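Hi, here's the filled form for the chain we discussed.

Project: internal
Contact: R.S.
Residues: 491
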Amino acid sequence: MTPHTPDRPHPRLRAVLFDMDGTLVDTERLWWEAVEQVAGRALTEADQPEVLGRPVEHTAEWLATATGRPAAGLAADLHREFAERVRTGIVPRPGAVELLDALAADGIPAALVTASPRAVADVVLGVLGAHRFATSVTADDTARTKPAPDPYLAACRDLGVDPAACVAVEDTGTGVASAEAAGCAVLAVPSLAPIPEAPGRTVRDSLTGVTAAGLERMVVPRLRVMSWNLWLGGSQVDDHRAKQVEAVLASGADVVGLQETGGTAAQELAEALGWHHHRAGENLGIVSRHPVTARFGDPDVGFYGAAGVRIAVAPGREVDVWTAHLHYTPYGPYEAAFDGLPADELIAHEELRLDQMRDALDRVAGAAREDVPVVLTGDFNCPSHLDWPDVRWPVTGAAEKAGFADSFREAHPDPAATPGHTWSPVHPVHEDGSGRPEPQDRIDYVLHRGLTVLDSRTLVTGTPRPWPDVAGNDWPSDHAAVVTTFALPAG
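And the returned structure, exactly as it came back:
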């Protein structure tokens, strides 16, 4: 991390990460013109998702599909047309140079983070002044570019800063998605396509008048929490431990509530990440990049149950994080889809899980401190009452009655528009050989009490092959993970 000095005027803001095209320099127009030239037609608003904020290779593939021309040749043509326009027509965006100089005067490092190739970025750096940037990340520097978080994570690693202490400045939805997935606050200054306001995101018409003090006000203490069932420790997938480490890093999580750890996964993951951990029994664990200051629950808990930790997120800022795993049978979605049971019978069959949830909630309450927010992660093996209009599933209802909010549904209130299914990325078809579709549902959760949800999403990396051909999958689980970014209360 960048060392804190008492006289630093903006101690919470550690760096500002700038997109290039359309943000610092007026190149979106040049890129648009280059694509029109190569496409041989005028572009329309419908073309924006394939053009704005996209790397050259993506747009070339899109044009190849539409024209039948080879993608490699189209990419070369796009590079040439764009580079020629950049060399002769580059113009800084209003307020860009002034903001860069103001940041430099306050000792706040700036980074250039672009989906353009290095050759184009270097031309722009020459115009803006390479001395104004502590580092630069281009499409040539990471395996994945925007909208993946990799470019912003790479810039933060180069600078030695926490993404949560940075503001990313972007002009496209693709870039905003990349920065937010990395955990940065975002200042969006749309160039051609509108960008809506959202938690953790500020939208302005221009960089004119933007100050370091204003950017610092966007930086709030954050915590990104992941809930993940490891599927018998990951043992069904080859090289599972390395893939688990990769998935945790890709998520940007600060703390992960684990289920089905296979005994050693929490410790081994923590050691590989250089993190702290808590192991409870053979099935539950928590790994955290923040120090663990207390451990809760029965350390010898059985296969099902709950365990928790208190973590020190920052000086004087603690959060309790729990992980819970509830019994898998009888499974309500099967009884509804295959057996046609009515709502009252489905609810009656939840008694075992409901007892387990009540026990978990009692343990959480017994360890809670009034000034410490609480997060409850877990594989509950049951749907949510917020998702099914005709079934008041009691397990999630009990958590809600205890004061816990469902972070995913806060971020995505409409279950029809965003179902958030976590079961199952490897089971499209039921295992009994009947060929029946597997009921897909949301049974993994990140609940909270006392925090503000900035974003929540499900996570599966790669394209998992279905059961039983899973050994080579990149994603080493049969569940999707849930990843929620929280803002901590004002200190």
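Let me know if anything looks off before we file it.
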